[in-house]
Amino acid sequence: MGSASSGRGGKSGGKLLVVGWLLTLVGGAMAVWGIFHALAPMIETYRAALDNPLADTMPEDGKQLSREMMVHLPVGILGALMATVGSSMLMFIYGSRVLRRLSGRS
């Protein structure tokens, strides 16, 4: 009924290609979003200090600031890992295609 290949090799490697692109794009977006939102409290603290340096709005300690930053940081780390796995898959797929073409011409 079906072919012996299970989504690998030849022209049927499209599934791996789609998964690689999805991991890269979704992971990259998650990484950018998570890292931006993790750095936002620190950026806001510095922005408030530059807007009004004599105001007493600075945090007493950095513990609250670090807690706010740690909320979104795991999302950024997970996104970076997903993007790394996806780009590695794409490099393997495209690299093997190039090597196959080069070895066929030699």
Structural summary, described in words:
The protein is rod-shaped, with a radius of gyration of 23 Å. The two termini are 36 Å apart. It has one domain. It is mainly α.
Any chance you could write out the topology, listing elements then pairs?
Elements: H1 14-51, H2 63-105
Helix pairs in contact: 1-2
Q: Outline of this structure?
A:
The chain has 106 residues and is an all-alpha fold.
The helix/strand class is mainly alpha
- Count of discrete structural domains: 1
If helices are DSSP runs of H or I spanning 4 or more residues, what is the number of helices?
Answer: 2
Number of E-type strands? 0
Key terms:
106 residues, mainly alpha, 2 helices
